Amino acid sequence: MAGGDERENLTYPLFGQAVRELAQTIVDDGFEPDIILSIARGGLFVAGGLGYALDVKNLHVMNVEFYVGVGATLDMPVMLPPVPDVVALNEKKVLVADDVADTGKTLKLVHDFCAGHVADVRCAVIYEKPQSLVKCEYVWKRTDRWINFPWSAQPPVVSRDGQVLDA
Question: Which keywords belong to this entry (predicted)?
Fold first, then answer.
């Protein structure tokens, strides 16, 4: 594990601070997104917080599967249904939100999906790791450590297999 045994421990209160600071960075840069495109699942929290902080009500969700366990991934990320209609994004300024840019493969997939259809696409994450293929425009903190997010630090209350639904 990169960074040894030390981990980033994001608590809910610190997450609130991180999202506000990330939003301020976006405002200070002069970027005014029309749409926030969340990468589910971890990006849902970030997108919701940014939506309120930036007063953007138009939030979309893209479901992408890549991590299948701790440190275990598919070869490449895969978009899961329902896939957003690119027409809804046409000529809009899109802010892609996720919790972490780790390998950057998921962000690259979503960024490339938007490219050519939108007026501008930029990425915002709480954490960015050095090996990320995508260098995000807006990053709260850069780290090479494993991250314990408050929403995934504990195991699920119930374990369910096969809950991904086809469209």
Answer: Glycosyltransferase, Transferase
Task: Please give the Cα distance from 124 to 137 (Å, whole number).
Answer: 6
The token duo for 83 is 């896939």
Measured between alpha carbons, how far is 130 from 150 in angstroms, rounded to an integer?
Answer: 22
Q: Which of 96, 97, 100, 104 is nearest to 133 (CA)?
A: 104
Domain boundaries, the chain: 7-148
pTM of the model: 0.85
For residue 7, give the nearest of 100, 75, 97 by alpha carbon.
Answer: 100
User: Of how many residues is the chain composed?
Assistant: 167
State the SS3 of 120-155: EEEEEEEEECCCCCCCCCEEEEECCCEEECCCCCCC
Q: Return the CATH fold of 7-148.
A: Rossmann fold (3.40.50)
| Residue carrying structure tokens 């369910």 | 160
Of the candidates 18, 104, 115, 26, which has an alpha carbon nearest to the alpha carbon of residue 64?
104
Q: What does the pLDDT look like over 56-87, one tens digit per residue?
A: 999 999 988 765 555 656 577 777 777 777 77
Mean pLDDT of the region 93-101: 97
CB 92 within 8 Å of CB 119:
yes
34, 60 contact by CB (below 8 A) = no
